[in-house]
Amino acid sequence: xxxxxxxxxxxxxxxxxxxxxxxxxxxxxxxxxxxxxxxxxxxxxxxxxxxxxxxxxxxxxxxxxxxxxxxxxxxxxxxxxxxxxxxxxxxxxxxxxxxxxxxxxxxxxxxxxxxxxxxxxxxxxxxxxxxxxxxxxxxxxxxxxxxxxxxxxxxxxxxxxxxxxxxxxxxxxxxxxxxxxxxxxxxxxxxxxxxxxxxxxxxxxxxxxxxxxxxxxxxxxxxxxxxxxxxxxxxxxxxxxxxxxxxxxxxxxxxxxxxxxxxxxxxxxxxxxxxxxxxxxxxxxxxxxxxxxxxxxxxxxxxxxxxxxxxxxxxxxxxxxxxxxxxxxxxxxxxxxxxxxxx
Length: 343
Known about the structure:
alpha+beta; 18 helices; 3 domains
């Protein structure tokens, strides 16, 4: 039987598997949804630079440490997965492994597979978040680094934070959505911790649907930062990004609208487009964002507009308003210039 998709290959090999998107941030992808994507019946939901950035984990027996691939698969202009790219990767895989997915790869075979154009290596913070989430989802033990982080959070003293492992911080944050007590503890402690620990924890938060109470605390921490003589836009962006795993909610939408009214810099504009695009499904906020982008960040306009319009949740809304007479003159001009380039 001819095998044309990754799902078919993994199923026929007798594995169980889970999929995660690692493009902008860590997000689980249902196997059934991926099968629809592979069949060309729906676009990839979270494109980044016209690619799907996938973590594929599979195992042959329950309780077994999973095998993992990190795949970067091209998408067409409609956001559909390229079948040719998948077949190319499968061909390379079969050449190295045969039909035995449990066969250990030699170092030479691993290097050979890594040389295909369809693999990538995630950044360390994203890799830590992925391993934490995968272990949790599969019911596997956390890393040995979690216990020292838990102990530190109970009694943060001196310079002991410097011995904490990134994987332990990731393991702790991955447990926030299901642990109210831990969430309260972190909320009470977070802003008294050393800045490097705060930053690492906030970076991990963006990969999970943290409880709204904690998300609201993080948004509230933006106000005192704005009151400083020279607000730290990187810090504000980090606080916003930490809420990225939450579904759209009014408090965040209002915060973004107020920030857009304050002429934000490039860092915040990139953060909104890359991490908080789900709030831009609100039409008013979307065109507030695009108006600021066109008026204050013209060099970024074409690239960010292309990324947003490639996102399936935003594409129909943007295309329906391309010729809306209510758009500002600067936004109409920016869109017109972009369309003239692409024709």
